[in-house]
Amino acid sequence: MKSHIQIFDTTLRDGEQTPGVSFSFDERLAIAKQLELWGVDVIEAGFPASSQGSFDSVKAIAQTLKKATVTGLARCKQSDIDAVYEATKEAVNPSIHVFIATSPIHLESKLNMTESEVLSSITQHVTYAKTLFDVVQFSPEDATRTPLPFLIESVQAAVDAGATVINIPDTVGYSYPTEYGHIFKTLIETNQSENEIIFSAHCHDDLGLAVANSMAAIENGAKRIEGAVNGIGERAGNTALEEIALALYVRQDHYKIESNIQLNQTKATSDLVARYAGLAVPRNKAIVGRNAFSHESGIHQDGFLKNPETYEIMTPQLVGIKQTELPLGKLSGKHAFQEKLKQLGYDIDAEKQKVLFKAFKNIADKKKQVTDHDIHALIQGTSHELHAHYQLDALQLQFVSNGLQSAVVVLKDKDGQTYQDSSIGTGSIVSIYNAVDRIFNIQPELIDYRIEAITEGSDAQAEVRVAIKFENEIFNGVGFDHDIIYASCKAYVEASSKAVTTRKEIEV
Ligand code: KIV
Ligand code: ZN
User: Where is this region: Regulatory domain (predicted)?
Assistant: First the structure.
């Protein structure tokens, strides 16, 4: 008989701790809705005590979601616990995630507390959290570098105080599968409680072992796995949840455990997070990378054509990658376009469809055939722009060979106000970026710039990603367009607008 595993997503909390990633309020809400559609059981929507922005979005997510448990992170501090309570109290299923470090290095260097002080703090704060929540999850931070006897004591203290979920974080990605599995086995065997206690795994990928460690935890009794979409998160990231979901499904003969994940929503979830995080999914990434289902060698192609199962252990359709069907063209009308959106699984309201149809016509004028890839790219780009605080309104470029280039940039904000400036530079992109800097009145450092063709052919649509450093923080931006100059400008505008918005937040 198959048992059930809970999937706990922390894309909006630990995932947002990825250097350079900062989701806007609208993006957090959109991601949370998609996570619910994907079938995630628990969504860690943020750390409400950390900022007003986090508090507000946790609250909005709690008010919006219909099924998933919404949780928030809290240190062992009454004010943190109160903040999670206030932010999640309207959720259909609210819960709290309380943590304190237990390893010697954290006790000595960070907390300046003794082991017995940590145990009292666990008892005091889990007890308090239990007065506000039915479900309290407790995490001993840096559990894998905590001596096992003290880990057992800490976990027992939390359970005695009312925690019913115990999460074991491999905070620094230090453990290996047999060791991590052994920790679960030992804790499950030694823990004493009248209630059913769910043990949960939370792994970081510093040694590239996060997924393997999580699978070892499952083999040793874990009934909840924490992670993030595309494996984003602090430093090297968290367990990639799409890999867990597919490993459990494809190797159900071995694991015999089911999750609620709707596998055909996997690609859409990954795309959404990649876009809002401004972090491209590596081409060779398992499950959702662009190469995950392409076959290069002649021998592989030959085998695949004779029988796909020769080289494919799962189909692209399983994870929601749609095959290219009939392309649209410039004569295709509204109806054909609507049909295509439906076929590709998009449920888009009439207002947004109008905007998309206009953008589609624009592309169809430039391309002979508009493929399914183009439509996906169009939807990504357009919805991105609809959420953006500043949009590129007009761009004028004067190009001279062997000389300085000049650019005029016009931006429009959400309220329709326009901003314009011009500048020169040693190249077209430099002149555009200088003009944008003048509009925002900042001087960031461009630290990354990448162009990728997201559709096929010489008339492909382009995706440009940039990262800028401003006041010691990194901001990512992404721009989609048929023209790489436009895409480059849009990406830079997005990153710069995040930088100035953050500065405003700090100033308030
Ligand atoms: O990695 C970690 O230890 C965490 C805790 C807050 C659970 O993210
Ligand atoms: Zn973590």
Answer: 391-508
Q: Give the residue numbers spanning the domain of 437.
A: 389-503
Taking the centre of ligand 1 as the mean of its atom positions, its distance from the CA of residue 293, in whole angstroms, is 33
Residues 342-392: tens digit of each pLDDT: 777 677 888 888 888 988 888 888 777 787 777 877 887 776 666 678 989
Q: Cα separation of 80 and 47, whole Å?
A: 8
Task: Check if the beta carbon of residue 478 is closer than 8 Å to that of residue 465.
Answer: yes
Dist CA 437 CA 444 (whole Å): 8
pLDDT digits 0-9 by tens, 197-250: 999 999 999 999 999 999 999 999 999 999 999 999 999 999 999 999 999 999
Residue 24's Cβ-count burial label (10 Å; 0-12, 13-18, 19+) is middle
- Number of domain units in the chain: 3
Q: What is the pTM of this model?
A: 0.80
Mean pLDDT of 419-438: 96
Residues 179 and 269 in one domain: yes
- 140 in contact with ligand 1, CB cutoff 6 A: no
- 248 and 325, same domain (yes or no): no
Looking up residue 433, the CATH number of its domain turns out to be: 3.30.160.270
Instruction: State how far the alpha carbon of 232 is from the alpha carbons of 72, 264, 297, in Å.
Output: 18, 20, 31
Q: Within this chain, do residues 205 and 150 fall inside the same structural domain, yes or no? A: yes
Whether 30 maps to a domain, the answer reads yes
Ligand 1 pocket: which of 84, 139, 203, 234 to mutate (most atoms within 8 A of CB): 139
